[in-house]
Structure formats: C-alpha cells, structure tokens
Write a structure and sequence with these properties.
Helix content of chain A: under 10%
Largest sheet of chain A: 7 strands, mixed
Number of helices of chain B: 0
Strand content of chain B: over 45%
Radius of gyration of chain A: 13 Å
Oligomer: heterodimer
Number of strands of chain B: 10
Distance between the termini of chain A: 36 Å
Shape of chain B: globular
Distance between the termini of chain B: 40 Å
Strand content of chain A: over 45%
Order of helices and strands of chain B: EEEEEEEEEE
Number of helices of chain A: 0
Structural class of chain A: mainly beta
Shape of chain A: globular
Helix content of chain B: under 10%
C-alpha cells in the first residue's frame, strides 16, 4: 500500500465553524506533513511530525492545530478560519531520517472558507 | 526562508519533442532534490530525485541534471507526450533536522498536438 488517504476531499465551512482534516498512511512512514497550496502556487510547508512529535511549525496561525494520534494518522483541526485560508491542504508522509527518500502526497482536501 | 526556482511559468512543446524545465536554488546547504509532477486536481507525484554527490541521474524518459556551482537543476523529458502536461515543481531539502522540503514556483508544461 503506497497511498496517502485524505478526507474529506472537499470542505466548505463558515468562519465560526470547527472542522478537521484527516490523513492516513500505512507505509510505515514515521514523518508526516501538512502543506498548504493556493491556486497556481507551490505547496508551502505548515507542519512536520517526526516519530509522532511536532518537529517543524512554520509559524502557522493557531487557528490551525495539528495532531498526530499515532504513526499512521495525522489530523488538522480548523477553527475560526478566514476566507484567505481557502486552499488545497496536502498531507504527505515519508521516512523520517534526512534524505532517505521522497514525500508521498495525498490528493488533498480542498477547503473553502465562507 | 530562501526561495527556490526561476520564474518560468509556462513551457509549450510539440508532442514528441524533448522538454527542459529549469529550477534555481539558493541554499548551498541543500543536498537532496526532487522533481514532482502535479496534474490538475491531484497531489504532487514523485518523478525523480538526485543527491548532491551526483551531477546526473536518469529514469524512464526523464533525466535530472544538477549543477552545484551555479545552484541549478534541470529536468529533461524525452519524447514529450500529452500525458506529460502538468505543473512541475523542483523541491530541495533545505537542511536542519529530518526532511524539510521547500518547493520552487513551478512550471506549467503544455504539450501541443
């Protein structure tokens, strides 16, 4: 199984809502990532979990809250988002040690904030 | 953070011709590079990678060249096909702990019939 599965594929939420994005992989990878991608732009790193611990937080606003319940699962909790947070949110996984291979990406969750 | 990539948003090539997509990087400490392909509505897909101790690496129809002197990467696609139409990103592992990839601005490849 070489897939990273993200749910939901599409999400529309109001600025006062609380929602979560979910990501799952069964490749035995111990590093998992959240990237944000706006239209016609490259993916931008938000968070990295390595061995279930948050290792990188790229100064992301606190309205985005990541969680890594176990080595296969990664969540992104969303609260009080702004319309400019509308984007494609990509989850990825990889081996955890440096330069040990590529990131495997999911298909993304397209988020619209009204 | 440091930026990666030349601003070359669109490349149009005839089907069957070779394509060359370029990328500049600015972090001299980066030692691992990946090319990704992203089709509309999908996540990035791995194409080929190269480590800094190499100058060239070949895959099936693709070749990546690395010039560390001028901090430049290129992706060559041989006999470009319609299915190659996509946005291509270079990504560099910028250093520090573990895997920390920064993506270049991307190039859209359009294959003309």
């Amino acid at each position: 199984d070489t897939e990273v599965t993200q749910t939901p594929k599409h999400l529309v939420m109001g600025m006062t809502n609380k929602k979560s994005l979910k990501c799952e992989q069964h490749m035995g990878h111990r590093a998992m990532y959240w990237y944000k991608q706006k239209a016609k732009k490259p993916p931008e790193l938000m968070f990295v979990y390595s061995y279930e611990k948050l290792s990188i937080n790229e100064s992301v606003p606190s309205r985005f809250s990541p969680e890594c319940p176990n080595s296969s699962l990664l969540n992104l909790h969303l609260h009080a988002l702004q319309p400019e947070d509308s984007a494609l949110y990509l989850c990825a996984s990889s081996l955890a040690d440096r330069n040990t291979g590529e990131l495997f990406f999911g298909e993304g969750s397209r988020l619209t904030v009204l | 953070g440091e930026s990666v990539g030349l601003h070359l948003p669109t490349l149009s090539v005839q089907e069957g011709d070779n394509s060359i997509i370029n990328c500049a990087y600015s972090n001299s400490a980066s030692d691992y590079f990946i090319w990704y392909k992203q089709e509309s509505g999908k996540g990035p897909q791995f194409i080929i990678d190269i480590r800094s101790n190499m100058d060239k690496r070949q895959g099936q129809r693709v070749t990546v060249l690395l010039n560390k002197t001028v901090k430049h990467l290129s992706l060559q696609i041989a006999a470009t096909q319609p299915g190659d139409s996509a946005v291509y990103f270079c990504a560099e592992n910028v250093g520090g702990y573990g895997q920390n990839f920064v993506f270049g601005p991307g190039t859209r490849l359009s294959v003309l019939p």
